[in-house]
Every structure is written in structure tokens, then in C-alpha cells.
Amino acid sequence: MTYDGTYSLLNVGKIFAGPNSIEKIADIVKECNVQKVLLITAKGVWDAGLVARPVALLESAGIQVDVINHTPPEPEIGHVNEIFNLAKEKNSQMVIGIGGGSAMDVAKIVALMFTNQVPLKDMLGIEKVKNPGLPTLLIPTTAGTGAEVTPNAIVLVPEEELKVGIVSSKMMANYVILDPLLTLGLPQAITAFTGVDALAHAIECYISKKGNPFSDMYALQAVRLISRSLRKAYRDGQDVEARHDMILGSMYGGICIATSSTTAVHALSYPLGGKYRIPHGLSNAILLPSVMEYNLDACEHKFRDIAEAMGLDIAGLSTRQAAEKMIENLYSLLADINIECTLRDKGIREEDLDGLVEAASKVTRLLDNNPKAMTRQDMRAIYQKLL
Ligand SMILES: NC(=O)c1ccc[n+]([C@@H]2O[C@H](COP(=O)([O-])OP(=O)(O)OC[C@H]3O[C@@H](n4cnc5c(N)ncnc54)[C@H](O)[C@@H]3O)[C@@H](O)[C@H]2O)c1
Ligand SMILES: [Fe+2]
Predict the structure, then answer these.
(1) N or C, which end of the chain has less CB nearby within 10 Å?
(2) Helical axes 188-207 vs 319-336, angle rounded to 10°
(3) How far is the CA of 146 from the centre of ligand 2 (A)?
């Protein structure tokens, strides 16, 4: 395929990866010539004991660490403001985010709030941020959002019942540590939800209208890694090789977002998170196969490529058959990792569908990239099918 137009790839500064790469944390901070850091994490991550070692490493290198350890999952805009109010007293020189997408997104936003004296709501949207933030180091403990390498941070805006993004090249991290050992204790359900989120990033960015040679390469490799290891990581959380594949696959999915874009799965997912508080990974998982069925006519060749990357046996199949097999595999993956839930299970009723469509249709930032145009009726039909 030839690509017309220019495409670009935003990159983070430096990535350390592999088992025990967390041991690099103090060297990284020293490289930044910083004496005082703010470490932002979530309660689940703190309770899992994942923060003690990084703090000990920093402190023994003479670095002062202030910890905020109560970032809520899927934070609201008000939560982020509260956390910044605590943080701003601390004269921090650098922000470290350790956790899933929720904690890393808060760390990314707080780093910007230190240097941009504007209310957070004024930074929502695309490239609204004026000044670069404090230096950041992001350390994922889910695999996942890929938020460690994206220019995005997502907050829930309760009055709009929607999740909204800050998208800014100024939010790219200076450093990332990808240590699969930090994900060994990730609970089974979170392993499942977050793993499908990563797969959705790869598939959506591959079929997106913004897809390009960079996203193609990272997307197909993410699909390979996640397809061979998500079931394994779900069955045995202590499988280091599977966890390693997953954290790399998740990061590659994030790189795809940084050069391409997600599409209708994420657009239709935002109101499920915003109004019904369904976790991000789960809402994407519920939608992924159905949205791909909708897209089938527009994406047969690309779905065939994805089927191949998934390791499916497509020898002798027509392009259409291989594409259909890719979608069947999405359903069987969800069944294998016990994601079999309907919107009704989550309290959504027929009379709620118009509101969902109304909210989803505002997410034009992503809908515009879907390979097949989606009308309100199309969106309604997808939600209806998932009831
Ligand atoms: N910035 C981006 O590019 C981007 C992309 C996709 C999603 N997101 C956002 O990220 C958020 C979701 O992030 P997530 O799916 O990673 O989940 P999360 O960060 O909300 O974490 C889910 C739960 O798992 C716990 N947890 C995390 N790591 C753990 C570990 N190793 N052991 C035990 N418990 C652990 C957390 O404390 C939390 O309770 C949403 O707000 C979503 O909108 C951001
Ligand atoms: Fe996502």
C-alpha cells in the first residue's frame, strides 16, 4: 500500500525495559540533575507493594521523594485538581508516575500543571498546552493503556458524563521504565481488561484512517505479542515471559496511538466509562468484536493481515474468510479470558441508548478516523446488539 501525505511519530526520550529495569530509577533521576521528586501512584499499586523498592532506591541515592498514593481508577477532573493542590506545595523538580493508565495520566497532567498556570479544563482538547511540563518518568504496572508513550491523558468530566482527553506533544515522557516484574501481581480480571485495551489500540490504529508505516509496524508486532501471551498471562500471572510480551505489546499499542489514532471502539467506549463507570479496558473489550464486524467490508485486507499476526491458520482461505476468522478469534479470546458481559449486566437499558449515542457522537476526534463512516443509527445498532 502507498501512503500519501506526511506522517509523524512522537517518541518519548529514553526507554529502559526488561526484568528488573526498575533498578535504573535512581540513575535516571540523577541523569536529570534533580534532588526532589514527586511520585504519583494508585492505592492498588501501593498496596501491592510496588512502590517501596523504587522509593528505597531513590532515597539511598540521596533523592528526596514525596509520594501521593491515592490516585483513583479512571480519575475525574476534580480528582486531578485535588492531587495538584497537594502536589504544588512540594517544590518538586520532576514527576514520576507508577501505575496503570490512571496514575500515569495524573502524573502527566500534574507535571504540566506545575508549569502552566491555567485551569486544567483549559488544557482539554488537542494541543492546548503552552509550556512544557516538569520532566517525567513513567512506569506502567498494567499492560495496558500504553499511556507511558502517548501524548494523551484522559479525565472523566462528570457534568458531560464523558471521558475527555488532553492531547499534547508537551506531555511526552522524558523517561520510561518497562519492567514486566511489576505486573506479576496484576489481578486476573485487570490483566484481561487491560490486555484487550492494548489489543484494541493496535487493531484500531492499524485500520485507522491515520494509519501509516510506523503504526503498521508497531501494530502488527503488538498483535503478535498480545495474541501469543494474553491467554498465558491470564492463566498464570507469574509467567514472566508472557508478562514481558504483554508490557511490550502494550507499549507498542501506545506508540501506535502516538502516530495513528484509535477509532470507533474507543469513541463508543468513552460514554460507557463516563456515565456507567465501566472500566476502560472492559468497555473496549465489550465493543471490539462488534465494531470490527461493522468495519469488515472496509477492512478485509487489513483484517487478513491481523489474522496472520495473530498466528491463525489462514492457509487456503479467501481474504474475506481470513478476515472473518480474525473476528471469530476476538470472540474466542474474550471467552478464554472470561470477558462475556453485556451492557445490560452493567445496568444499561434500551431507554439509555439514545443518550449513549448522543455522547459517543461527540467523540469526533476518534470517530473521524474510523475506516467506515458511522451514523447515529449505526452506533445505536451496535449498542443495541450488545444489550
Ligand atoms: N493516556 C492514554 O494514552 C490512555 C490510553 C488508554 C487509556 N487511558 C486511561 O487509563 C485509565 C485506565 O488505566 P488502566 O486500564 O491501566 O487501569 P488503572 O490504572 O485504572 O488500574 C486499574 C486498577 O488496577 C490497580 N493496579 C494497577 N497495577 C497494579 C498491579 N501491578 N498490581 C495490583 N493492582 C494494580 C490500580 O490501582 C487500579 O485499582 C483510564 O482512565 C483510561 O481512560 C489512557
Ligand atoms: Fe484504550
Answers:
(1) N
(2) 160
(3) 8
* 133 phi/psi in degrees, rounded to 5: -85, -175
Question: What's the confidence (pLDDT) of residue 2?
Answer: 63
**pLDDT tens digits, one per residue of 264-315:** 999 999 999 988 999 999 999 999 999 999 999 999 999 999 999 999 999 9
Which ligand sits nearest to residue 149's alpha carbon?
Answer: 1
Atom of ligand 1 nearest to the CA of 102: 19
- Is 71 near ligand 1, meaning CB less than 6 Å away? no
C-alpha cell at 6: 506526511
Give the burial class of 157: count Cβ atoms within 10 A of its Cβ; 0-12 exposed, 13-18 middle, 19 or more buried. middle
In the DSSP assignment, the letter for residue 44 is H
Q: Please list, in sequence order, all residues whose beta carbon lies within 8 angstroms of the beta carbon of residue 33, skipping any fewer than 6 positions away.
A: none
Cell of 206: 492499524
**Cell of residue 362, nine digits:** 461527540
Domain 14-183: which CATH class? alpha beta
Distance 349 CA to ligand 1 centre (A): 27
Q: What ligand is nearest to the CA atom of residue 50?
A: 1
**What separation in Å is there between the alpha carbon of 325 and the centre of ligand 1?**
30
What pairing do the DSSP bridges indicate for beta strands 162-167 and 152-157? Answer: antiparallel
Task: Take atom 20 of ligand 1 and give the residue whose Cα is closest.
Answer: 73
Q: Please, which residues have CB less than 5 A from ligand 2, an ion? A: 197
Q: Looking at the whole model, is its pTM more than 0.70?
A: yes
Domain at 188-385: CATH code: 1.20.1090.10
For 81-118, give one letter per residue: b (16+ CB within 10 A) or e.
bebbeebeeeebbbbbbbbbbbbbbbbbbbbbbbebee
Does pLDDT of 160 surpass 90? no
User: Which ligand neighbours the alpha carbon of 147 most closely?
Assistant: 1
Q: Where are the domains of the chain?
A: 14-183, 188-385
DSSP states along 110-124: HHHHTT--S-GGGG-
